Amino acid sequence: MNKLNIILLLLWYILLINLVNVNASALTSCLAPVKGQTVYPNNNTFSTLIVDENIYVSYTPSVLVYAANNNDVQTSVNCAVKLKMGITARSGGHSYENYGLGGRNNVMVVDLTNINEITIDSKSQTAKIGAGNKLGVIYDKLSQAGFLIPAGTCPSVGIGGHSLGGGFGMASRKYGFASDNIISMEMVDANGNLLKIDNKTNSDLFFALRGAGGGSYGIVTSFVFRIHPTPPQVTSMTLQFDINQVHQLFNAYNEVGPSLDNNIVLSLSLDTGILSIEGLYLGSSKNAKNAMNTFLSKAPKPTSSEFKQQTFFDSVVKFSYLSSNEVKNPKHHPYFFKAKSFLVNKGLTSQAIDSIVDFLKNANCNGFALFDLFGGATNIVDDTSSFIHRDVLYGIQLLSSWETKDQSNKCVKELNDFGKEFQSKFTSYFSYQNYIDRDLDDWQTRYYGHNFKRLVEIKSKYDPNNLFNFPQSIPVKV
Ligand SMILES: Cc1cc2nc3c(=O)[nH]c(=O)nc-3n(C[C@H](O)[C@H](O)[C@H](O)COP(=O)(O)OP(=O)(O)OC[C@H]3O[C@@H](n4cnc5c(N)ncnc54)[C@H](O)[C@@H]3O)c2cc1C
């Protein structure tokens, strides 16, 4: 390299360093009015604060803004617009593809952890819930007041991403998805305005957010949910079966599933050599046994079964496999994983069951499959919701996990290859958007079906410059 080239290279470095510093200082001064904490990459704690649940994909943001209130969120949005930066909301950090960190590097992450008030109005049976709350905390607080919302079983999932994409759990056949129970929301839009959203005000956003809202339209800071009285006792059910009777068990699931009492949710799980069902009945064990009678008369005889009568909150603890204390104070359990979602309308055929059993048996990575019985209230069509999966018998989640980064490519490829073929041969065309999957083709239709076009129109009305975007966000144009 000659002298001139060396000098030019040095000058280029100096210019680059200055540009980075100018941008960094512009960002710091723009965010100065924020009351909550702002954490930059040069902070010692930064690297630990960007470890979300799935460590298979990771991104490095430019800053983490721990918003303390709506104003902080508004300031952050205004700064992102001014500095032409990407911006993303993070509630619980449980996106399967780490979209809570933006799905790319160098974005501003607005973390909502500290917007976590929960105000319960027992009389109107509603609760205002800050978007930074985790499910475990919500279950705890609502249970203490004698209420529940239908939502997922993992306590550290955030209510933000979860309820904006659906939210299925052990009370869903009775009360629907979490998103079905949202009555109103507050959201900071791309202009930095705080919008009130309900069935009458900004009703198009009300429709879009309840099913397709995670990350695409703005930052939701709070929700008002319809809450439901907890029965005095519920019954958790654990049934183990001989893996050789998998076909008979699926026959019972397919046949009796649709007519099963809506107080019941069942989740069948298939692992290498293990076949079991976990379930919840919203009532006493005596009634649970009665309600399960027809199913059990068609199913193979369980090798073990337990019907445990307990409080609703104790059932939440049971299905979390964590301590009660951790459910109330949830934390991440980061690991390497990838998942596929399939939705089934009429039940799997014998050939489909064999195919999934064989895959699990021969896979190089740790796989298991869950078959959550939908139906009941989850299948009620609601034209104020963009959630389309309303004719589903069960939702399948096929998950693969592994121990070290160098296994990632092999494990992901194996799952992707199987998933593509399985979905094309044996299930409906559709997938559940909360199990978001960057490798899914035609995700626009598979997640949002006939609503996609309308979702795009709403996006272009509220966020025409596509400020809120990530690799699978609703675009401004079809
Ligand atoms: C261990 C585990 C267990 C799970 N169990 C269930 C289950 O039982 N049932 C079920 O239905 N799903 C379940 N999920 C899936 C879960 O519902 C989704 O991953 C959900 O998107 C996570 O939300 P989050 O806020 O925790 O994640 P984040 O990563 O914080 O956010 C996910 C997406 O939503 C956006 N977002 C988050 N908060 C807001 C907000 N306030 N405003 C606007 N956009 C926002 C983010 O930008 C991102 O795009 C589970 C996931 C994991 C990892």
Provide keyphrases for this structure.
alpha+beta; seven-stranded antiparallel β-sheet; 15 helices; 3 domains; binds flavin-adenine dinucleotide; FAD-bd_PCMH-like_sf; Vanillyl-alcohol Oxidase, Chain A, domain 3; 478 residues
The number of domains is: 3
- Which structural class should the secondary elements be placed in? alpha+beta
Count of extended strands: 18
Please mark out the parts with pLDDT under 50 across 5 or more consecutive residues, or reply none.
15-22
Largest sheet: 7 strands, antiparallel
CATH architecture of the largest domain: 3-Layer(aba) Sandwich
Structural summary, described in words:
It comes from Glomus cerebriforme. Belongs to the oxygen-dependent FAD-linked oxidoreductase family. GO terms for molecular function: FAD binding; oxidoreductase activity. Pfam families: BBE, FAD_binding_4. It is a single chain. The protein is an alpha+beta fold and about 475 residues long. It has 3 domains: about 5-110, Uridine Diphospho-n-acetylenolpyruvylglucosamine Reductase, domain 3; about 120-230 and about 450-460, Uridine Diphospho-n-acetylenolpyruvylglucosamine Reductase, domain 3 (2-Layer Sandwich), CATH 3.30.465; about 235-445, Vanillyl-alcohol Oxidase, Chain A, domain 3 (3-Layer(aba) Sandwich). It has 15 helices and 18 strands. It has helices at about 5-30, 45-50, 70-80, 135-145, 160-165, 170-175, 205-210, 245-255, 285-300, 310-320, 325-330, 350-360, 410-425, 445-450, 450-460; strands spanning about 35-40, 65, 85-90, 110, 120, 125-130, 145-150, 180-190, 195-200, 220-225, 230, 235-240, 265-270, 275-280, 305-310, 335-345, 365-375, 395-400. The strands form 4 sheets. The protein has a 7-stranded antiparallel β-sheet with strand order 15-12-14-13-17-18-16. Strands 5-6-10-8-9 form a 5-stranded antiparallel β-sheet. It has a 4-stranded mixed β-sheet with strand order 1-2-4-3, covered by helices on one side. Helix 8 (about 245-255) crosses helix 9. The radius of gyration is 23 Å and the shape is globular. Residues about 15-20 have low confidence and may be disordered. Flavin-adenine dinucleotide binds next to strand 3, helix 5 and strand 10.
